[in-house]
Amino acid sequence: MSTTARHPKATSRFERDFCGVWTAIVTPFKEDRSIDWGAWEKLLAMQAEGGVSGVVVSGTTGESPTLSVQEKISLVRKARAVLPKSIRVMAGSGGNNTDQSVELSRLCVDAGADSLLVVTPPYNKPSPEGLKLHFSTVAGSVNAPLCLYHVPGRTGQLLTADVLATLCGIKGIAAVKEATGDVAFLSRARNKTRQHGTAFLSGDDITFLPALSVGATGVISVLSNIFPGELVSLFKAWESGDIARALELHDIMQPLMDALFCESNPGPAKYVLARAGVISNTLRAPLAPVTASSAAMLDACVASTRSAFK
Questions:
Q1: Of 89, 144, 147, 141, whose CA–CA distance to 117 is shortest?
Q2: For residues 185, 189, 194 and 195, what is the CA-based torsion angle, rounded to 10 degrees?
Q3: Separation of alpha carbons 217 and 213, rounded Å
């Protein structure tokens, strides 16, 4: 089994620790919408076999808004028990209530999480001073590194590179999941945080390869729910200097990278996994299964991708 990847240009401990392919793993449900623990172990085994560096449990792709606190803790505990230590477990513990985020973060770490994914608070959109208060409070409450999640498309708040750099100076913040989809912004933000040694992970599959070229150390991926080993191969090709092969793999997977967002994530990913017999195509409301037209498009896209890998 592959061990955690190491980026050849990583210069800080954070960049070495937050490196390679991390799967934003879906939460499988039975038809009655309870968690399917057998399917959960199957998904985790797929990730281990694919050689990913880590999994992100109870993030947006895991339908975190619909999970109870106890369900989140149980998912983390099971993931840490099933996966080898070489594969790290990052738990989503963010929100827009700082006290609740502190409580959930502590519970996740107690359950075995190696690190925490903490989003900039959505909806109430705190000021830069409020953001500093939020992240310093959460980071100071646990003995585990935080990955700051910057996703303005979901939170309604686009940070400046300067504000992001200030937040990365908070003790305990080790990484950033950068999901603006703007590689130029990632480049500027990373450059401003170099003194802190902050690791930057692409938050979008489509920007994974270009983000590596400006200093990102990996990706938090939706696609790797389906093709973990192939995405790891892309990273290894980049790591070894075989840029042509990395680009070839990117080009093969690019249509599916886009297709997985034809409707609200993780609906498309769950449909593809269900078609493969891994999980049930069940989501919790307000999310709904993909439409028939999206399903047909996904079927064709997956078939084309699989054919290209033969």
A1: 147
A2: 170
A3: 9
Q: Provide the annotated active-site residues.
A: 149, 177
**Per-residue pLDDT at 1:** 39
Query: How many Å apart are CA 195 and CA 53, to the nearest integer?
Result: 25
pLDDT for 107 equals 99
Contact (Cβ atoms closer than 8 angstroms) between residue 112 and residue 80? yes
Is the sign of the CA dihedral 132, 135, 140, 143 positive or negative? negative
The partner residues of 147 in beta bridges, in order of sequence, read: 117, 175
**Antiparallel, parallel or unpaired: β 115-119 and 88-92:** parallel
User: In angstroms, rounded to a whole number, what is the distance separating the alpha carbons of residues 262 and 167?
Assistant: 33
Residue 114 has φ and ψ, to the nearest 5°, of: -85, -25
Sorted by sequence, the CB contacts under 8 Å of residue 68 that are 6+ apart come out as: none
**Could you give the CA distance from residue 135 to residue 9 in angstroms, rounded to a whole number?**
28
User: The domain 13-241: what is its CATH number?
Assistant: 3.20.20.70
CB-based contact 178:202 (threshold 8 Å): yes
Interhelix angle for 128-140 vs 98-110, to 10°? 30
Q: Which residues of the chain, if any, have pLDDT below 70?
A: 1-11
pLDDT tens digits, residue range 78-131? 999 999 999 999 999 999 999 999 999 999 999 999 999 999 999 999 999 999
| Residue (of 201, 308, 203) closest to 265 by Cα position | 203
